[in-house]
Q: What sequence folds into this?
């Protein structure tokens, strides 16, 4: 069931332009406050809903775009790949990555895009993390991991994807090992692209502390702000900046307005997140 179905409106009704996040178990997401803040910075008045839905609802949510009930979506776990058959066309970036996190309607065509790529690169640049020629272990193989993998390749890194033995591996990933095969001693940087460490798994880590105690960790999670893996690492960064920058990119697409990830905008969004 869609959590906020009571807010859907008829075509032509005088209501706020509506956007939403499609996913599962997203009740703690900061996306609504982030996008409300971005809209304010852009001079827009919008509504942004959390759409915690079963997979069977995905075609109906796409149909809502044509009825002008929604004007765009973000997509999160577990639907970044599942949603692809329901869009009409992928952007070059989304096609290259094989995952979608942003959806919008261009005339009568449903477009799937990926702004996680820009979000991760923005995170790396913001924190001045050196990745060129570095061996980077990406933990996980979902939609976020796919965007991170492509971004790291473009930044000149040497990414390797670490998966569970029974995982289905995407053709995108050229170097893959299981946790059992994994030689963590040769890794310069770890990226956690799994949900382990948040919500009911808070305080847990996929890696023994000895694996990361002299290493740098980027954890794509942002709740909690400091995960166990980050605590165990020599240097740790969470995924908040990636979340903010990909949101700015999504909003730029929806509003057809270039919303820069400049110091003023980033600080305004960070301040709102801190007060939540």
A:
């Amino acid at each position: 069931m869609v959590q906020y179905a009571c807010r859907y409106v008829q075509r032509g009704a005088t209501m706020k332009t509506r956007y939403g996040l499609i996913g599962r178990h997203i009740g703690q997401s900061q996306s609504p406050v982030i996008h409300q803040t971005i809209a304010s910075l852009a001079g827009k008045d919008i509504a942004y809903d959390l759409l915690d839905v079963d997979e069977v609802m995905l075609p109906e949510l796409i149909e809502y775009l044509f009825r002008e009930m929604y004007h765009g979506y973000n997509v999160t776990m577990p639907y970044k790949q599942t949603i692809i058959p329901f869009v009409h066309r992928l952007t070059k970036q989304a096609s290259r990555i094989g995952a979608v996190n942003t959806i919008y309607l261009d005339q009568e065509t449903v477009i799937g895009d990926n702004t996680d790529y820009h979000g991760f690169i923005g995170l790396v640049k913001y924190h001045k993390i050196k990745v060129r020629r570095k061996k980077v272990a990406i933990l996980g193989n979902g939609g976020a991991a796919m965007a991170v993998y492509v971004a790291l390749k473009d930044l000149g890194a040497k990414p390797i994807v670490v998966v569970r033995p029974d995982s289905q591996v995407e053709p995108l990933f050229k170097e893959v090992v299981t946790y059992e095969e994994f030689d963590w001693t040769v890794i310069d940087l770890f990226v956690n692209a799994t949900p382990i460490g948040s919500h009911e798994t808070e305080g847990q880590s996929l890696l023994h502390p000895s694996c990361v105690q002299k290493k740098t960790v980027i954890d794509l999670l942002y709740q909690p702000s400091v995960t166990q893996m980050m605590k165990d690492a020599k240097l740790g960064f969470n995924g908040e900046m990636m979340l903010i920058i990909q949101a700015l990119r999504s909003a730029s697409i929806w509003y057809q307005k270039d919303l820069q990830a400049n110091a003023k905008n980033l600080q305004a969004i960070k301040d709102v997140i801190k007060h939540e």
Remarks:
- The CA atoms of residues 226 and 238 lie 7 Å apart.
- The chain has two domains: 5-114+241-275, 118-238.
